[in-house]
Design goal:
By secondary structure, this protein is an all-alpha fold. It is 86% helix and 0% strand. It is built from four helices and no strands. α2 packs antiparallel against α3. The protein is elongated and about 60 Å long.
Length: 133
Protein backbone atom coordinates (compact mmCIF):
# COMPACT_ATOMS: atom_id res chain seq x y z
CA UNK A 1 0.00 0.00 0.00
CA UNK A 2 2.91 2.35 0.70
CA UNK A 3 4.17 1.87 -2.86
CA UNK A 4 0.72 2.65 -4.24
CA UNK A 5 0.37 5.80 -2.13
CA UNK A 6 3.82 6.97 -3.18
CA UNK A 7 3.02 6.36 -6.85
CA UNK A 8 -0.30 8.17 -6.53
CA UNK A 9 1.48 11.09 -4.88
CA UNK A 10 4.02 11.22 -7.73
CA UNK A 11 1.24 11.19 -10.33
CA UNK A 12 -0.63 13.90 -8.45
CA UNK A 13 2.49 16.06 -8.26
CA UNK A 14 3.16 15.55 -11.99
CA UNK A 15 -0.36 16.67 -12.84
CA UNK A 16 -0.03 19.64 -10.47
CA UNK A 17 3.22 20.65 -12.21
CA UNK A 18 1.50 20.31 -15.59
CA UNK A 19 -1.31 22.53 -14.31
CA UNK A 20 1.20 25.11 -13.09
CA UNK A 21 3.08 24.92 -16.40
CA UNK A 22 -0.17 25.74 -18.18
CA UNK A 23 -0.48 28.82 -15.99
CA UNK A 24 3.09 29.91 -16.74
CA UNK A 25 3.27 29.21 -20.46
CA UNK A 26 -0.32 29.64 -21.58
CA UNK A 27 -2.28 31.70 -19.04
CA UNK A 28 -5.19 32.19 -21.44
CA UNK A 29 -5.71 28.41 -21.38
CA UNK A 30 -5.55 28.08 -17.60
CA UNK A 31 -8.59 27.68 -15.43
CA UNK A 32 -8.60 27.91 -11.65
CA UNK A 33 -10.35 24.54 -11.59
CA UNK A 34 -7.16 22.67 -12.58
CA UNK A 35 -5.80 22.37 -9.02
CA UNK A 36 -9.21 21.16 -7.85
CA UNK A 37 -9.20 18.55 -10.61
CA UNK A 38 -5.81 17.26 -9.49
CA UNK A 39 -7.05 16.75 -5.92
CA UNK A 40 -10.41 15.37 -7.11
CA UNK A 41 -8.84 12.67 -9.28
CA UNK A 42 -6.33 11.69 -6.59
CA UNK A 43 -9.10 11.30 -4.02
CA UNK A 44 -11.44 9.35 -6.27
CA UNK A 45 -8.63 7.09 -7.45
CA UNK A 46 -7.55 6.35 -3.89
CA UNK A 47 -11.08 5.47 -2.77
CA UNK A 48 -11.63 3.38 -5.90
CA UNK A 49 -8.40 1.45 -5.28
CA UNK A 50 -9.25 0.81 -1.64
CA UNK A 51 -12.71 -0.50 -2.52
CA UNK A 52 -11.47 -2.72 -5.34
CA UNK A 53 -8.55 -4.19 -3.39
CA UNK A 54 -10.82 -4.90 -0.43
CA UNK A 55 -13.16 -6.85 -2.71
CA UNK A 56 -10.30 -9.04 -4.03
CA UNK A 57 -10.27 -10.85 -0.71
CA UNK A 58 -13.81 -12.10 -1.33
CA UNK A 59 -15.23 -14.70 -3.69
CA UNK A 60 -14.06 -14.17 -7.33
CA UNK A 61 -17.64 -13.70 -8.51
CA UNK A 62 -18.18 -11.06 -5.85
CA UNK A 63 -14.93 -9.37 -6.89
CA UNK A 64 -16.00 -9.17 -10.53
CA UNK A 65 -19.41 -7.76 -9.62
CA UNK A 66 -17.88 -5.25 -7.20
CA UNK A 67 -15.14 -4.29 -9.64
CA UNK A 68 -17.53 -3.50 -12.46
CA UNK A 69 -19.92 -1.76 -10.09
CA UNK A 70 -17.15 0.45 -8.73
CA UNK A 71 -15.85 1.22 -12.21
CA UNK A 72 -19.34 2.13 -13.42
CA UNK A 73 -19.99 4.25 -10.33
CA UNK A 74 -16.74 6.16 -10.78
CA UNK A 75 -17.42 6.67 -14.47
CA UNK A 76 -20.89 8.05 -13.73
CA UNK A 77 -19.43 10.30 -11.02
CA UNK A 78 -16.86 11.68 -13.45
CA UNK A 79 -19.56 12.23 -16.08
CA UNK A 80 -21.78 14.03 -13.56
CA UNK A 81 -18.92 16.30 -12.44
CA UNK A 82 -18.07 17.11 -16.04
CA UNK A 83 -21.68 17.89 -16.99
CA UNK A 84 -22.39 19.95 -13.87
CA UNK A 85 -19.23 22.00 -14.37
CA UNK A 86 -19.97 22.60 -18.02
CA UNK A 87 -23.58 23.59 -17.38
CA UNK A 88 -22.56 25.95 -14.59
CA UNK A 89 -20.38 27.93 -17.01
CA UNK A 90 -22.44 27.47 -20.15
CA UNK A 91 -21.84 31.08 -21.18
CA UNK A 92 -18.08 30.55 -21.57
CA UNK A 93 -17.36 28.09 -24.38
CA UNK A 94 -13.58 28.56 -24.24
CA UNK A 95 -13.45 27.78 -20.51
CA UNK A 96 -15.61 24.69 -21.07
CA UNK A 97 -13.28 23.47 -23.79
CA UNK A 98 -10.18 24.00 -21.65
CA UNK A 99 -11.80 22.37 -18.62
CA UNK A 100 -12.88 19.37 -20.70
CA UNK A 101 -9.37 18.89 -22.07
CA UNK A 102 -7.89 19.11 -18.57
CA UNK A 103 -10.52 16.72 -17.25
CA UNK A 104 -9.80 14.19 -19.99
CA UNK A 105 -6.05 14.39 -19.37
CA UNK A 106 -6.60 13.77 -15.65
CA UNK A 107 -9.09 10.99 -16.32
CA UNK A 108 -6.86 9.08 -18.72
CA UNK A 109 -3.75 9.55 -16.57
CA UNK A 110 -5.55 8.12 -13.54
CA UNK A 111 -7.26 5.41 -15.58
CA UNK A 112 -3.92 4.13 -16.84
CA UNK A 113 -2.39 4.45 -13.38
CA UNK A 114 -5.23 2.63 -11.60
CA UNK A 115 -5.42 -0.14 -14.20
CA UNK A 116 -1.69 -0.77 -13.96
CA UNK A 117 -1.74 -0.69 -10.16
CA UNK A 118 -4.69 -3.08 -10.01
CA UNK A 119 -3.09 -5.56 -12.43
CA UNK A 120 0.11 -5.54 -10.38
CA UNK A 121 -1.88 -5.97 -7.16
CA UNK A 122 -3.84 -8.95 -8.50
CA UNK A 123 -0.68 -10.61 -9.86
CA UNK A 124 1.07 -10.16 -6.54
CA UNK A 125 -1.95 -11.53 -4.66
CA UNK A 126 -2.12 -14.59 -6.94
CA UNK A 127 1.61 -15.18 -6.56
CA UNK A 128 1.32 -15.04 -2.77
CA UNK A 129 -1.67 -17.38 -2.84
CA UNK A 130 0.18 -19.97 -4.92
CA UNK A 131 3.22 -19.77 -2.65
CA UNK A 132 1.04 -20.48 0.40
CA UNK A 133 -0.28 -23.70 -1.14
Amino acid sequence: MKRYLFSLLVLTLLLAVASYATLLFSPENYTNKFPVLVVYFAGVTLVQHLLVTRSTKKDPRTFVRNFFGIILGVLLLHFAVLVITMVSQIHNAHANKIFTIGFCVGYFAHLIFETTALVLYVRRSQKEATQEQ
